[in-house]
Amino acid sequence: MIEKLPSGKWRVRLYAGSDYVASRTFALKRDARDWETRQNLLIKSGSWSHPDDASMLYRDWLDEWLAMQGGAGKTRSKRKWAAGYARDALGRLPLSAVSPSRVKKTVAAIRDEKSRDTAYQVLVVIRGSMRAAVDEGLLPRDPTATVKLPKARPNEPRPLSHVELWRLSEMMSTEADRIMILTMGYSGLRWGEISALRPDQVSERGLRVTHAYSEVDGKLILGDVKDHEARSVPLPTRVRDELLVWADKRSRRDLLFVTSRETPYYNGNWTRSKLRPAAARAGLPKVTPHNLRDTAASLAIDAGASVMAVSRMLGHENASTTLTHYASLFPDTFEGLITRLDSAIEATLSFKDENGGERRQEKAN
């Protein structure tokens, strides 16, 4: 298969039956076609061996690797953004010349010039592409194996209280926006999930979250939720009932929350035109849709929800993600532990005093 790359060059992806076996990039299409023909003849004759593709430029392999990656639209967009830095720094090198020291210098420079988070994302891309090159037999080893990933700094949660959330909702300009704020503040839905929510996903049990919008190159793309894990999310009775009333006003297959033109909201437009003015009227500092996600987690934790329950509500892939981001919101574990142990000891001593101190604790239970 021959395809034209964004650089203007021509890449041949060679297959043996349905299995991908090699690739090579050429400046001219006729050269690409001639090489493909020769390789196919060798495959058919049984005398084919893997060409030395380590001499290809890193930028050409990076383009090929990117084309093979999946993920939601937002994930692909973020990967493409990070790959731009990798291409600028390493793109002109042959794939075999990308050394551990060169990768370390690249990551350090991006960390110093941009941020630690940017360096983290760029190294993820470089590491992914290099590991794939090793898997394909293009390189003998992964040059990023000894390069440490700079830890991405998590954003500190900035949740609202119950009072602040309801005050904010009352300052929204329309009924739909008021209900949307409450739904986000108690469900923890991501922006792409709330903007893709339909009436038939609302029931007496709460919400069934199955799809989400991603903004890719300025366009909204509807796809599965993150990690492709549909989930059910409960809502407080008052909020659920108001949402059900609103859902009954919409056609069952329409979106629940839309612009005046019946089109999906863009995060930036809604935040700028709806959320920020309402927050100012409510006397609140800068509020973003993600703050409402933090709010849902915080209010659930205050109500006694476990890490696992909050993780399922938010749609995290595993509970460690929830604990990492929201650890500061959970009660002091040791303080609660000591309180429970003190109570158990007092109950034990009281029981022993009342019964001559001879019976075992299990009898008290």
Task: For the structure shown, list the relevant keywords.
365 residues; mainly alpha; three-stranded antiparallel beta sheet; disordered C terminus
Describe the protein's architecture and organization.
With 365 residues, the protein is mainly alpha-helical. It is 52% helix and 11% strand. It has 15 helices and 8 strands. Strands 1-2-3 form a 3-stranded antiparallel sheet, covered by helices on one side. Helix 11 packs antiparallel against helix 12 (307-314). The longest helix is centred in the last third of the chain and has 22 residues, at 333-354. Mean pLDDT is 85; it is low at 358-365.
Provide a compact summary of the structure.
With 365 residues, the chain is mainly alpha-helical. It has helices spanning 29-45, 58-68, 73-90, 100-113, 116-135, 162-170, 175-187, 191-195, 237-248, 267-281, 289-302, 307-314, 319-326, 333-354, 361-364, and strands spanning 2-4, 10-16, 19-26, 202-203, 206-209, 211-216, 219-224, 231-233. The protein has 15 helices and 8 strands.
Strand order of the largest sheet: 1-2-3
Q: Percent of residues in beta strands? A: 5-15%
Note the main sheet: 3 strands, antiparallel
Contiguous low-pLDDT stretches (5 residues minimum) are 358-365
Provide the residue-averaged pLDDT. Answer: 85
Shape: globular
The overall strand count is: 8
State Rg: 28 Å
Helix content: 40-55%
Distance between the termini: 73 Å
User: How are helices and strands ordered from N to C?
Assistant: EEEHHHHHHHHEEEEEHHHHHHH
The helix tally amounts to 15
Derived from helix and strand composition plus strand pairing, the structural class reads: mainly alpha
